[in-house]
Amino acid sequence: MILVDSLRERGTRSPAASNNMSSALYSPWRPLVIFYGICCYSATAFMSSTPFCTRGVPKSIRSRSFGSSRLASTMTVTAADITTAGKLGEAETSALSDKYKSVLYLATDKGADKGIEPNGFASLRGLTTRHLPVDVKDGLSLQLATDALQALDELPAPALVVCSSGGRASAVQCLRKATEEGWTKDQTLAYALEMKLPFVKNPSLKDWVLATVAAREYKDELPLLFRPLYEETSWTYTFLLGCPVTKEAILIDPVDLTVERDLQVIKEMGLTLVAALNTHCHADHVTGSGLLAQKVPGCKSMIAKISGAKASIHLEPGNRVRFGRRYVEARATPGHTNGCMTFVTDDMKMAFTGDALLIRGCGRTDFQQGSPETMFESIWTQIFSLPHETSVYPGHDYRGRLMSTIGEEKRFNSRLSGKSKEEFIEIMNNLKLAYPKKIDVALPANLVDGVLAS
Question: Which InterPro entries does the record associate with it (predicted)?
């Protein structure tokens, strides 16, 4: 039974193949599955001569030669009608009309963020132009991606896409290519890695591209089955997610006190629980994951390996936990504890942040392996990298709020919005919070999956 796959495993099979294999392993046709596995092994040996990141990518991409433009060393020709570029000088700008009919300009022209010297967008002359400012830190949304693709459709070809470093330009080019080819997230990322596109090194641009592709990839899928559940004594949210096709489900952050209630909900919805996930080793309640693993045949408890806690399966960053045709991906978001994980749905529309990012706040960093420096980096590179529209579901809220969005938290979270790392550290180091009431009971129990020896 394939519940969890890794980045390395995804390099040798497409998402569709992963889902098909998972379904096969749940079927009674095990002899055929074994035969299929032997065939796959042989195929893998044959494919060993194929570069890792080209597997699952159309052959038209693998064989195409992408040369470099003579116009500037920062330019790379990436398609027949689109070229991307970083910052251009005056001489290069004056020669643009000899090669291009239009320019899509992505730099904001704020401060040093100029794609053309010395005057930014105002330097462009004699071409059809469009200025679409892309602010990587605060302005990435699915709507912005749609606007960029629409601009490329409307501008006459050949077109030049310009920003200050090539990152944003390469992201838009990749989006255009993925849309034309109908690629999945995995195929899009494989292409970007093979072509060494600059945006891949920026977490926000990378998530922006992949989330935009995912929106199309999953647009025809039935929506996830979703139920938020609540445990009132610890203000803890438990989240139930189910595949609408196979009815397999997972629970995120179950509580021991509400295990029976959760099982009743699962039964009433006609679901089969395959996994109980912990975002971290909790200090304010005892997890229900171990009890669920005992009570439900086939259910596996899961937690980050680095947490040191017991579980059926230990997770690493990048692991995908599959339930039917859907999955959540684990992202390492330490800072509250060293083993904190955020789970992001396959369509990148939902992020379950545990005690890392809360609504208008964040988890405390003054006990266990807490670190405000690490927390700041985790939130900005693994959570705030998601598009503005992504919904945020925290592990707790003390004011009755269920969810927020990335865009809201970037704008209104007083601990993080507009704050430098140094300012954030100062805030977190001076919260003067009380000692957690249940930590002396909860933490030892959670280190053994919530099930103490009788």
Answer: Metallo-B-lactamas, Mito_Persulfide_Diox, POD-like_MBL-fold, Prot-tyrosine_phosphatase-like, RibonucZ/Hydroxyglut_hydro
Q: Which residues pair with 249 in a beta bridge?
A: 242, 273
User: Of 21, 26, 5, 17, nearest to 246 (Cα)?
Assistant: 26
Q: Are 289 and 445 in contact (CB under 8 A)?
A: no
Fold of the CATH domain 60-217: Protein-Tyrosine Phosphatase; Chain A (3.90.190)
Q: Return the beta strands (E) in 324-395 as ranges.
A: 326-332, 341-345, 350-354, 357-358, 361-362, 391-394
Per-residue pLDDT of 32-77, as tens digits, reads 433 444 444 433 333 333 332 333 333 333 323 222 332 333 344 3
CB neighbours of residue 68 within 10 Å: 12
Distances 58 to 54, 177, 180 between C-alpha atoms, Å: 8, 12, 12
Reference 178, options 110, 78, 298, 71; nearest CA is 78
Question: d(Cα 72, Cα 201) in Å, to the nearest integer?
Answer: 22
CATH number of 225-446: 3.60.15.10
Q: Which residues contact 113 (CB under 8 A, 6 or more apart)?
A: 107, 164
Task: Give CA 186 to chain center in angstroms.
Answer: 12
Angle at 118 between CA 170 and CA 195, to 5 degrees: 15
CB within 8 Å of 20: residues ≥ 6 apart: none
| Closest of 291, 261, 265 to residue 278, by C-alpha | 291
> Cβ distance 359 to 411 under 8 Å?
no
pTM: 0.84
Cα gap 238→254, rounded to integer Å: 5
Contacts of 248 (CB under 8 A, 6+ apart): 242, 271, 272, 274, 323, 324
Q: Name the β-bridge partners of 350.
A: 391
Give the pair of three-digit tokens for residue 32.
Answer: 């055929």
- Read off the pLDDT of residues 128-173 as tens digits, 9 standing for 90 and up: 999 999 999 988 999 999 999 999 999 999 999 999 999 999 999 9
* Domain coordinates in residue numbering, the chain: 4-49, 60-217, 225-446
The Cα–Cα gap between 70 and 92 comes to 10
* Rounded-to-integer distance, Cα 148 and Cα 154, Å: 10
